[in-house]
Write a structure and sequence with these properties.
- This is Prophage PssSM-02.
- It comes from Pseudomonas lini.
- By secondary structure, this protein is mainly α.
- The chain folds into three domains: 68 residues; 106 residues, no CATH class; 60 residues.
- Helices cover 74% and strands 3% of the residues.
- The chain contains eleven helices and two strands.
- The protein has a two-stranded antiparallel ribbon.
- Helix 1 runs parallel beside helix 3, helix 5 packs across helix 7 and helix 6 packs antiparallel against helix 7.
- It is elongated.
- The termini are far apart.
């Protein structure tokens, strides 16, 4: 939040910016605009006013300033956000994403699981734009987090790239890399990974029990699906038999009718 002195300076900068655009703003109006902008960082406000002086051809408005302040918050556009979200769907990839991308992907995931990419993208864009608008209206800063993938080499590359792009701090990146280098892969982790890779590793008794429960659920679902398939196949056979019998009966009736005429 800006101090009272900073708000007064901002009001003066707003009046000066308006003047460069051939407009006169009252001190009261400038103070009100300064109050609305006070939740943002001073550097971002200065850049936004500078952009207004360079880009606007009409009057200076609060909406024009807000648009430029918010565009500088580092949140990716919806197309870039969707690309990041899709990359995160690959379990081997390590992805750095914002909170809004993560939440929007939750809305799109059920549609994407049905392989409706177009519908999933539409749902994602709608949710993402709504989340971003709400965050910007509340002046929430952009927060990036790391979603670690299974590929160790890609983890390091993604984290180092995020530090270079200043999405995460050097300290955060260093901590992630340190944890990756010193944290051993547990036996349970190897066992879970083996479900995907096909390799074998003996899990702990607790995990073994959980995996057994999962297998029971999966096997029960498979058995139920097989029973339903058998029922459907039997119903199809009965239906085929009845239709054939009805067809033969119709032919026989036609033949009897023709014979009676002769």
């Amino acid at each position: 939040m800006l101090s009272s002195d900073e708000r007064a300076q901002l009001a003066g900068a707003i009046c000066a910016t308006a003047e460069t655009l051939g407009q006169t703003i009252s001190a009261t109006a400038a103070e009100l605009m300064a109050d609305d902008l006070a939740v943002f960082a001073p550097a971002d406000i200065r850049k936004a006013l500078q952009a207004c002086r360079r880009e606007l051809t009409g009057k200076l408005t609060l909406a024009a300033v807000l648009q430029r302040v918010q565009a500088a918050d580092g949140r990716p556009g919806k197309d870039e956000a969707w690309s990041i979200a899709l990359t995160a769907g690959d379990e081997s990839e390590t992805v750095v994403m914002t909170a809004e991308i993560r939440l929007a992907m939750v809305a799109a995931q059920p549609i994407l699981s049905r392989r409706d990419v177009v519908g999933a993208r539409m749902a994602f864009n709608s949710a993402y734009e709504r989340l971003v608008s709400a965050a910007r209206a509340e002046a929430k800063p952009t927060t990036w987090s790391v979603s670690l993938g299974l590929d160790p080499a890609r983890r390091v590359t993604a984290i180092e790239s995020a530090v270079r792009m200043q999405l995460i701090t050097q300290q955060t990146g260093t901590q992630y890399l340190t944890d990756l280098r010193i944290a051993p892969i547990t036996i349970d982790g190897q066992a879970i990974a083996g479900l995907i890779t096909g390799s074998t590793a003996e899990p702990s008794p607790h995990l073994r029990e959980k995996l057994a429960e999962v297998r029971q659920i999966v096997n029960a679902a498979k058995a139920r699906q097989k029973r339903e398939q058998l029922k459907k196949a039997q119903a199809d056979r009965v239906d085929t038999y009845l239709r054939k019998r009805k067809f033969r009966a119709a032919i026989a009736a036609a033949q009897r009718k023709e014979a009676s005429r002769g």
